[in-house]
Amino acid sequence: MKRFLLIAFAAAALVSCGGAKEEAAPASAAQAAPGQVNVYIWTSYLPPEVIAGFEKKTGIKVNVDTYDSNEAVLEKLQSGVADYDIVVPSDYMMKVLIPEGLVQPLDHARLPHFKNLDPRFLDQQYDPKNGHSFPYLWGTTGIGYDKGKVKEPVDSWRALFDERYAGRILMLDDPREAFGAALKIMGRSLNEKDPAVLRQAAEMLKKQKRLVRTYNSSDFANLLAAGDVDVAQGWNGEMAEAVSNAPGRLAYVVPKEGGTLWIDNVAIPKGARNLDAAYAFLDYILEPEVAAKIVNGVHYAGANRAALPLVDEKIRQNPSIYPPKEVLDRCELIEDLGETTKLIDDLWTEVKAQ
Amino acid sequence: MTGGGWHRRLLAAHTALVYLFLYAPIAILVVFSFNSARQTAFWEGFTLDWYRRLLDNALLFRSVRNSLIVAGITTAVAVLLGTPAALALARLQFRGKRSTQALLYLPVIIPEVVLGAALVTFFGAVEMRLSLWTVVIAHVVFSVSYVAIVVRARLAGLDPALAEAARDLGAGPFETFRRVTLPLAAPGIAASALLVFTLSIDDYVVTSFVAGVGATTLPLHIYSMLKVGVTPEVNAVSTLLLAGTVVLIVLAHRLLSAETGDSK
């Protein structure tokens, strides 16, 4: 019986390995042909018609898998056995992936449509000269509010610290965003490193805590839509969605002091097996018509300047998606603060624990 | 007598509350799959749109298919591996039995994050590319233990004299197994299969570590929708899965009570 068990286990192990190999074989055989490209991307970031258009034009099959966090990309690339050819990490994650050698240098010569990108979003500190990536979609952090319950139009981060809205305020449960709001009111940078200034910001947040109904980063737009809170800090994607469902009642604004800017970028992992197909796909999504189709389909702002005239009027004119230039100029990327990160985490813990 | 009635009413109310607690969220999920509002905060009106849109949502559809494939294969393999293990542990005395048993409990006890991280490191070390098959292998790893534990519990409750009697009456070891032990263990095996199928179909943590190209399962897909907001399409697909599961369980229950002859 003991022997039988051993054999059974061994046989099963063999069967499952065999299965895996069988599955892998056709995939590698297909690589010689135009074959396929494996894309690992945020959900709803690639409209089906863009995929269909590329497949029709090139004969290359696009496999799409979706993820819910930048950390998922890091984990997959670190495993060394994930077969993705294209990933779409956010700004701060690029700063982790590049030094670790998990993404490969980008060959600009193979991307003739690179010139269509808006210089505003190029050559950022997380990827100088776009050596490893190019910007895909971007957005902001701002304030969503209920126009019926908040009497005057909101235009400043001060609304989140306003006594009149006590118990009806929502803050993102995210130290950098919370400190960002306080620092911006103080006229400082989001990436302030001076401990004295950060302590002052923490004092502001401690005083504010009494007014805050909840700290929440996952469900803020729903809570605002449901009327649980009236003034909410939040990312523009979900906010724009909530506003478009209740246009008369809700509004989203990037405060005049400036908010957080985030940029999601396209990059090729080290060791990508379908390199030709990956470059073909990347250049395809840089074409103005295609880039416009992406923005129209996903309702996020795109980084492609040549595509802008082709974007639906309604999206282009929507300030929750494309904020006015002077507001955007005051927005900042969240940068890695090195040692200071620990201080902010500690101060944030103090605020939350109070 | 009147005191008894009072007690009974209290007990009934208590039971009703427990059931409400268990099923209210599911009822809301089902109800909101017919809600015409895109966000889940309000009831706006009745619609079948989300079910219609499911048919067009190729990614969501594929993720359901992936989940069913993984859960189906995992259940079959885990039952085939776990049942003999349970038999051996319940019936045989052998050296290293205690440590074998302890090892069997390990995948159930260790945190899923640790299991996921360990598996992905293992796949990296043996250069096995991540795919749907690595998900199946990972699920089998924790499922075998559940099958072995559940089936073993069933076998422990059985009288070993039954198998001995079959032998005395001239049945060979294989026939004893087929006609006595297996039918007696069947309810345990069926229960473990249902348990493992459920665990596999909604596993997120381990799967998120080991899923490769084309292997997005339903839980991975739903989580990945969080960035843009979960739509009632998810409610619709969950309702369909729920309906499917209920049918399966009713069928399994019918089958079992028909076989063992107890009518409930």
Name the features.
heterodimer, A: 354 residues, alpha/beta, D-Maltodextrin-Binding Protein, domain 2, 8-stranded mixed β-sheet, 3-stranded parallel β-sheet, 13 helices, 11 strands, 41% helix, 16% strand, globular, disordered N terminus, B: 264 residues, mainly alpha, MetI-like fold, 11 helices, 0% strand
Indicate the CATH topology of chain B.
MetI-like fold
Task: Report the CATH topology name of the largest domain in chain A.
Answer: D-Maltodextrin-Binding Protein, domain 2
Number of strands of chain A: 11
Number of helices of chain A: 13
Can you give the helix content of chain B as a percent range?
A: over 70%
Shape, principal axes of CA atoms of chain A: globular
- Terminal CA distance of chain A: 62 Å
Mean pLDDT of chain B: 86
The CATH architecture of the largest domain in chain A:
3-Layer(aba) Sandwich
CATH superfamily of the largest domain in chain A: Periplasmic binding protein-like II
SSE series of chain B: HHHHHHHHHHH
- The structure class of chain B reads mainly alpha
Strand content of chain A: 15-25%
Q: What's the average pLDDT of chain A?
A: 87
- Largest inter-chain contact set: A-B, 44 and 49 residues
Rounded to an integer in angstroms, the radius of gyration calculated over CA atoms of chain B is: 23 Å
Characterize the biggest β-sheet of chain A: 8 strands, mixed
Largest sheet of chain B: none
Oligomer: heterodimer
Note down, in words, how this protein is organized.
The complex is a heterodimer of chains A (354) and B (264). Chain A is an alpha/beta fold and 354 residues long. Chain A contains 13 helices and eleven strands. In chain A, the strands form two sheets. In chain A, strands 4, 5, 6, 7, 8, 9, 10 and 11 form an eight-stranded mixed β-sheet that branches. A three-stranded parallel β-sheet of chain A has the order 2-1-3. Chain B is an all-alpha fold. Chain B has helices spanning 2-32, 49-56, 58-91, 97-109, 112-125, 132-156, 161-168, 173-201, 205-210, 218-224, 232-260. In chain B, helix 6 (132-156) crosses helix 8 (173-201). At the A-B interface, helix 1, strand 2, helix 3, helix 7 and helix 8 of A face helix 3, helix 5, helix 6 and helix 10 of B.
